[in-house]
Amino acid sequence: MTGLLIRGGELIDPGNGRRGPADVRFEDGRVAEVGSELSTPLGAQVVDAYGMLILPGLVDTHTHVGAGYWAGHAMMARAGVTTALNLSGRMADVLDGIRTAGAGLTVASLDSPTPGDGLSSPEPPAAEIGAVVDRTLTSGALGVKILGGHYPCTPSATAEIIRSANERGAYVAFHVGTTEHGSNLEGLREAAELADGRSLHIAHVNSYCRGMILDPIVEAQEALEILTRWPRLRSESYLALINGTFGRCVDGVPASDTAKNCLRMRGYEATEASLERAILDGYALVNDARGDEVTPLRGVEARDVWRAHGTAASLSFPVNDPTSQFILATARRPDGRYVVDALSTDGGGIPRNVTVERGLALVALGGLALDDFVRKACTNPARMLGLDRKGHLGVGADADAVLVDPERRRVRAAFAGGRPIMMDGLVIGSGGGVVTTEAGRAAVAAAGLPVEVIDLQASALYQPTALDT
Fold first, then answer.
1. Where are the domains of the chain?
2. Is residue 309 pLDDT above 70, yes or no?
3. Distance CA 147, CA 155 (A)
4. CATH number of 57-384: 3.20.20, 1.20.120, 3.10.450, 3.40.50?
5. Interior angle at CA 170, CA 76 and CA 325, nearest 5
6. What is the pTM of this model?
7. Which of 442, 415, 460 is nearest to 139 (CA)?
């Protein structure tokens, strides 16, 4: 592999205690050298980074690149993401998407069984749950995501999914909500109790602080208290104002409980007719894939696309509270570690890949130091997944990096495995690699994709002290 030299940028690498002008040289997919005025090896590509920040490639622990979201690969590359955890869908669809629409990223994935689609009912027997977790692992997924906020199971079944995943050392994430409590602060309280001290990734914790139970600031403060009190709960939050949900309706009613909640938040009834009215009013946005980009549509055009998909279209609502998002993104534990471990997007194929844009705005406002932004967008999320060679740019690390214009808060270039995958908005990467466990090695190899096998027991999901401050 021909080498590559990034010359003359400002390196921000808190994982190795480095900040300042530097060159970074890649060779054979790894960081080979970091220093000042490095010599250029014969035949190496040279990239001019003067005036730009050199950051590790972003690691996004909440994305969507399953069926219907394949455009998310290119969208993430433009946003500086080089490693992503897909948080719903079937592994076979994810593998197909990497082969067909990949942009050179490294992807890990969770399966998302729901009642009627992977689970026999909202309260399947324990033996069935164990068998489902086993199947997700052998398919190449790291584990499971519980989609309780959309398609809930009973509290006892939800607790059994968490227990079963922990017993197997699998990754487990939870969009909170059961048949007893919804996707809100009450659901977050319940989630902590159901985990009962076990390891659990609380997905997009900001989504439960929208003011549905208490004032959103009070909800954010309680969410921080819950995460602090239960040290084996990992979490991430995002900074976009819009959420993501599903528009599919069954018998005149939205199938997703989250879609119903969003309608109620603005005084609409939880019916298909009211959802159509919300789309026409411009409150509900319909996410339409056009080439390698997804565009949020409003009004009549949005309604027509939603209907053309038989209502089974991706939707977004502007329901996130910016003040609670700021609180969640910046709060620290008594020991100095962040309460919410990482910045994410819940993006990929949902058009809100804004970590660099909004995260650097927090830096400009003084909410985060620049080093802290990199910790939350790169270093900590890599450790959540046990990816020791990612999230930093020390010698021997994976050659994943981004160049950022600090004035415009825009990603100018992204590199994965030592190769450019995006330059000035043009995506030039293809394919990608897959992170899996030993149980999934054969399935990923059979798909013809590069495999990285990890031991989740060494990840911050199971070892919270592995996280950076």
1. 57-384
2. yes
3. 13
4. 3.20.20
5. 45
6. 0.97
7. 442
